[in-house]
Specification:
- The protein is built from five helices and six strands.
- The chain is an alpha+beta fold.
- The chain has one domain: Hotdog Thioesterase (Thiol Ester Dehydrase, Chain A), CATH 3.10.129.
- A hairpin with a 3-residue loop joins β4 and β5.
- The N and C termini lie far apart (81 Å).
């Protein structure tokens, strides 16, 4: 009797390719984005939102401390779209045995708010005034990486709205969110 070797499905191949691409992108960024800290006010004032992310990707501006604390990183930014990537860890678990909703909400908040940020001209600031998260499926450390993908819905002179999805490398949706951000002129530095 002849047995056939297990042949990976096209979906499994695609998932493995996506995961490998995500891991490679993160490794490339971590090699350059070595400094954790706060951007200087002048770094914010003289760059558009998209230029700010591009400078961060080149290591010219530090990545934010929350990324180090919760083990996630901004990995892609274009005008109106920003992606963050994170590894669900046991340290992120709630008492019920899955990743705490706060970790998921923080990852999604970062993506959807930064999607608005990516559209801003130099000299503008923003803050989240509302975040709505829908949890679709429990997330555990068995999922190797997730991506929070934020995409603008509309950006006006004072208000920006965006939506986001938290997905695994196989396309599984774990949560989705919407946000409203207030856009304003920051106070001059002292």
């Amino acid at each position: 009797m002849t047995t056939l070797a297990a042949v990976p499905s096209p979906a499994a191949d695609q998932t493995a390719q996506t995961l490998a691409a995500w891991q490679a992108r993160e490794a490339d960024l971590r090699a350059v984005m070595r400094t954790c800290g706060l951007a200087k006010p002048e770094d914010l004032a003289r760059r558009s939102g998209l230029q700010f992310f591009e400078a961060m990707f080149r290591g010219e501006i530090p990545y934010p401390p929350i990324s180090q604390t919760l083990d996630f990183l901004v990995v892609e930014a274009t005008h109106g779209r920003v992606e963050f990537q994170g590894k669900p860890l046991f340290a992120h678990y709630n008492p019920l045995g899955s990743v705490h909703g706060g970790w998921i909400a923080t990852l999604l908040d970062s993506a959807v708010a930064c999607a608005v940020h990516s559209t801003l001209p130099p000299g503008k600031a923003y803050t989240t005034v509302e975040l709505k998260v829908n949890y679709v499926k429990a997330l555990t450390e068995r999922v190797p990486l997730v991506r929070a993908i934020g995409q603008i819905i509309n950006v006006g002179g004072r208000i920006g709205t965006s939506e986001g999805r938290l997905v695994g490398p196989d396309g599984t949706l774990y949560a989705h969110a919407t946000t409203t951000c207030l856009i304003f002129d920051p106070a001059p530095p002292e």
